[in-house]
TrEMBL record, chain B:
Keywords: Hydrolase, Protease, Signal. The keyword Hydrolase applies. Gene3D superfamilies: 2.40.10.120. GO terms for molecular function: serine-type endopeptidase activity. Residues 1-20 form the signal peptide. It comes from Pengzhenrongella frigida. Residues 31-54 are annotated as: Disordered. The lineage of its organism: Bacteria, Bacillati, Actinomycetota, Actinomycetes, Micrococcales. One of its GO terms (biological process) is proteolysis. This is Serine protease. InterPro entries: Peptidase_S1_PA, Peptidase_S1C.
């Protein structure tokens, strides 16, 4: 504790009421952290946050815990973290094993499918090649069917043409036969008529006229038959 | 802060960390999948016969019919196509003056004809059959337009079944004066014997009937519109006269 010797002197305006005690060397302060507030100094209350304080500008730190309890808490915390790490490691190990087995099984399945795919592709290529061959055979068969159908149609046309030709020839033959027969009758009749006329006095003129008329009819029939034949020939 | 409160906070922190850690840990793998190959995959579903006909011939060929007109003193051939199972369409002049009509299919089978009817206002005729025809097409709803692709299926020169193609060049009046209204002109090659051939569009529908050609190798076609009009009028077709009376 110091006393300003000039405090009572004129010109020294510090009243006694603002007297501030200064710590003496070797004195133990009542509160270690007590500081008078200085203008512009940082706010100690903001620094200490919610630490308890006795009064404005007076911060009190809690007394340090005892060493054994702090160690026990640290040990518990480390133990808990260790157990958690071991649990996570175990979980990750089992998960990894599971995925490894899954990958192996999936790969095995994929290889089986790949083998099946390769087999199917080979079979497909064979089927496509076979299909091409079948298509070529089908085209050949279709062309052959069309050709055979045409051959059959042509044969049918020829058959009908031959049938019509045979019919024609039959008609011509019949007409020619009719002509020949009629001509023969005509010629015979005319020969007979000539013989009758050579000895006309021996016959009744009326009978000769009738016979001549009949011979004329036979010859007219021959003429008609010949015209029919010519008609057939002209077809 | 007392040691007890600090320990509780530490324990709580460990618990929170453990819980958060469990969230980021990978899950355990599931069982090995056994259904890696799907039972069905998207794609065209196969049909019983696919796009193939029973013998590989397409409908255009299977519906074609070869017509042999056996007259009293004549023999001619033409083409036709099935309209339904027992009816076929051809030209009037193909079946005219016949004593017997003999039909055969694309594969050479003979089909017996029962009666023929001809239209007076168009070079068209209908022939009824006893046996069923192999296939028959669909008639188009409208006549084709100039530039449309056409396919002709018939028996040119009475020979093999032939498929030719061309394009519609336009419409004109009938140069033979056998058809009422306009007829179509195409550059699809046809020959005598092709008369009565079906003219198909790109979808296989009938768009007309071949009935003539000219020296410039242009073919004339009775349009499907005229065919539809004739078919809709029951009185349009009358029994075809035969050479035997």
């Amino acid at each position: 504790m110091t006393i300003d010797p000039h405090a009572t002197e004129p010109g020294h305006g510090t009243p006694l009421s603002s007297w501030t005690p200064a710590p003496a060397a070797g004195d133990t302060p009542l509160y270690a952290d007590f500081r008078p507030p200085q203008p512009g100094a940082p706010d100690r209350k903001a620094e200490v946050g919610a630490r308890p304080y006795v009064a404005d500008d007076m911060v009190i730190d809690p007394p340090p815990p005892s060493r054994p309890r702090r160690r026990a808490w640290a040990l518990a915390l480390v133990s808990t973290a260790l157990v958690a790490a071991l649990a996570v490691a175990g979980y990750l190990w089992t998960t990894t094993e599971g995925y490894r087995e899954l990958a192996a099984s999936t790969e095995e399945e994929a290889r089986a499918i790949g083998t099946e795919l390769a087999t199917t592709r080979t079979e497909l290529e064979g089927a496509i090649a076979e299909l091409d061959g079948v298509r070529a055979q089908l085209a050949t068969a279709q062309a052959r069917i069309t050709a055979l159908a045409d051959e059959k149609a042509q044969i049918g046309d020829d058959r009908e043409a031959q049938r019509q030709l045979v019919d024609y020839q039959q008609r011509v033959s019949v007409a020619a036969g009719t002509v020949a027969s009629a001509l023969d009758s005509c010629i015979k009749g005319q020969g007979q008529l000539i013989a009758y006329l050579k000895d006309a006095a021996a016959y009744d003129p009326a009978d000769l006229a009738t016979f001549e008329s009949q011979v004329g009819g036979l010859c007219a029939s021959a003429t008609d038959a010949n015209e029919s034949l010519q008609d057939e020939l002209s077809k | 802060m007392t040691p007890v409160r600090g320990g509780r906070l530490a324990a709580a922190a460990v618990a929170v960390l453990a819980a958060a850690g469990c969230g980021i840990l990978p899950p355990q793998p599931g069982p090995v999948p056994t259904d890696l190959v799907p039972s069905s995959v998207p794609g065209p579903a196969p049909t019983a016969t696919g796009n193939l006909s029973p013998d590989g011939f397409d409908v255009a060929q299977r519906m074609a019919v070869r017509i042999r007109n056996v007259g009293c003193n004549s023999l001619s051939t033409g083409s036709g196509f099935a309209l339904d199972a027992t009816t076929l369409i051809t030209n009037r002049h193909v079946v005219a003056d016949s004593a017997d009509l003999q039909l055969s299919t694309y594969d050479g089978r003979d089909i017996a004809a029962t009666a023929a009817s001809t239209a007076a206002l168009a070079d068209l005729a209908i022939v009824r059959t006893v046996d069923e025809l192999p296939a028959f097409p669909e008639l188009a709803e409208a006549d084709p337009q100039p530039g449309d692709a056409v396919t002709v299926v018939g028996y040119p020169q009475g020979g093999q079944l032939t498929v030719t193609s061309g394009r519609v060049m336009g419409a004109t009046t009938d140069p033979l004066n056998e058809n009422l209204g306009e007829v179509l002109v195409t550059d699809a090659p046809v020959e005598p014997g092709s008369s009565g051939s079906a003219v198909l569009d790109t979808q296989g529908r009938v768009i007309g009937v071949v009935y003539a050609k000219n020296a410039d190798d242009m073919s004339f076609i009775v349009p499907v519109g005229t065919l539809r009009e004739m078919l809709a009028d029951e009185s349009a077709f009358t029994p075809s006269p035969t050479c035997s009376g």
